[in-house]
């Protein structure tokens, strides 16, 4: 077991702080990508992340003896999905942003300079990915994170051919929504 995990399991606050520092960035990025606007309005990203860490720290005893930081991060992501889903139910957003009849995302707005930046475009694309069916959105996000189709299939527990087809459908839907 990773030494920080062992120490955190035994109640060491310094080890817990080190785990938070090591994992906060990826967790925050995941929560920002996956929490809908209504959820973020009702629960700031920092609060969601704090709740995730609290849940995972309460369950440290259930980690396997050979747990490493990747195992811990996986547990964080799994708990983040649960917490986002619970908050979405409370916020009345459980049907998701990809529900039929949902309003399209606003177009990217130019900055003061009059230029649309790459970050504006990426934010627009991320909003469009968020509106996809969750099965398709997960595949797109993992693919853009650099995972191969086989790795995505293993991670999501799907057949590789299914993952390829879902990715193809997602790209077609994104192209259509981008007006290409």
Description:
The protein has 180 residues and is mainly α. It folds into two domains: 3-91, Rna Polymerase Sigma Factor, Chain: A; 118-178, Arc Repressor Mutant, subunit A (Orthogonal Bundle). Helices cover 69% and strands 0% of the residues. It contains nine helices and no strands. It has helices at 3-9, 13-34, 37-42, 45-58, 69-91, 118-131, 134-144, 149-156, 160-178. The model is unreliable at 93-103 and 110-114 (pLDDT under 50).
The level of helicity is 55-70%
CATH homologous superfamily identity of the largest domain: RNA polymerase sigma factor, region 2, helix turn helix motif
Taken together, the total number of domains comes to 2
Radius of gyration: 18 Å
Given the helix and strand composition, which structural class is it?
Answer: mainly alpha
**What's the helix-strand series?**
HHHHHHHHH
Shape: globular
According to CATH, the fold-level topology of the largest domain is Rna Polymerase Sigma Factor, Chain: A
Query: How large a portion of the residues is in β-strands, by DSSP E?
Result: under 5%
Low-confidence stretches: 93-103, 110-114
SS elements, strand count: 0
- SS summary, helix count: 9
Largest sheet: none
Mean pLDDT: 79
Q: How far from one another are the termini?
A: 49 Å
Q: What is the C-level CATH assignment of the largest domain?
A: Mainly Alpha
At CATH's second level, what is the architecture of the largest domain? Orthogonal Bundle
């Amino acid at each position: 077991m990773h030494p920080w995990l062992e120490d955190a399991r035994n109640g060491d606050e310094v080890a817990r702080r080190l785990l938070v520092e090591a994992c906060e960035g990826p967790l925050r990025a995941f929560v920002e990508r996956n929490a809908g606007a209504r959820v973020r309005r009702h629960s700031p990203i920092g609060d969601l992340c704090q709740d995730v860490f609290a849940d995972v720290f309460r369950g440290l005893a259930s980690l396997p003896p050979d747990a490493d930081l990747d195992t811990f991060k996986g547990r964080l992501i799994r708990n983040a999905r649960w917490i986002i889903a619970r908050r979405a139910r409370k916020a009345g957003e459980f049907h998701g942003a990809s529900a039929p009849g949902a309003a399209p995302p606003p177009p990217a707005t130019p900055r003061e300079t009059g230029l649309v930046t790459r970050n504006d475009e990426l934010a627009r694309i991320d909003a469009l990915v968020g509106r996809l069916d969750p099965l398709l959105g997960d595949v797109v996000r993992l693919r853009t994170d650099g995972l191969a189709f086989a790795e995505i299939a293993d991670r999501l527990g799907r057949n590789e051919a299914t993952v390829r087809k879902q990715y193809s459908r997602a790209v077609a839907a994104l192209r259509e929504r981008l007006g290409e």
